[in-house]
Design brief:
5 helices; mainly alpha; single chain; 120 residues
Amino acid sequence: MRYLIGPELLWLLAYVAARFVAKANVPPSKSIDDFIEKSWFYIPLLVLVCFAMWWLPSVEKRWLLLRVWVACILGGHFVLETIMSAFSTQGPGIGMGYLVGIIWLFVLLIAGSLFVLIKF
C-alpha cells in the first residue's frame, strides 16, 4: 500500500479527469470552455497537493522529491496539453494558457522543494 499512494497516482487521476472534460466538450459548451480556459491556474495547484504528501505517514519518503518533480513535469504537461486541446476555438490565447500553466508549475515546484528541504 505504501507504493500506491504517490504523486504518480495523483497525476494519473488528473489526466483521467482531463480526458473526461475533453470528451464532455465535444459539442462545445460555454461553461466547459470557461473551465478549460481557467485550468492554467487549477492544474499547477496539484503540485501543492503533491508536496502535502510529506505529511502522510503511509507515503514512502525515499526519493519522493525526485518522484514529485518527474511526476509533476510529465503529468502537468500531459494534463494541460489534453485539456487545452479540448478548447473549442484554438488560437494563441489557449496556447499562452498552456505556457503560463507550465511556468506556474515550475515556480510551485521550486517553492515547494525549498520548503520541504528546509522543513524536513
